[in-house]
Amino acid sequence: MVRMASDQGERKKNEPGSHIARLTMMREPIKITRSLGNGVELGQRIIDFLEVEWYETTKSRIRKKTMGGIDVLVDKADRTTFQNGDLLFVSEEQAIILKIKPCDCIVLRPTNLISVGIICFEIGNKHIPIFMTEQKEVCVAYDANLFVMLDSAGFQPCIQERILFPFQMTKAFGNKSMR
Amino acid sequence: MHEISIVRNVFQTLEQTYPEKFDRIVKVQVQAGLLSNVQPILIQNAFEALIQEEPSLSDVELEVLLLPIIAHCDACDKDFEVKKHRFICVCGLPSKKIIQGEELQISEVQFSGQ
Ligand SMILES: [Zn+2]
Question: Which branch of life, at top level (chain A) (predicted)?
Answer without folding.
Answer: Bacteria
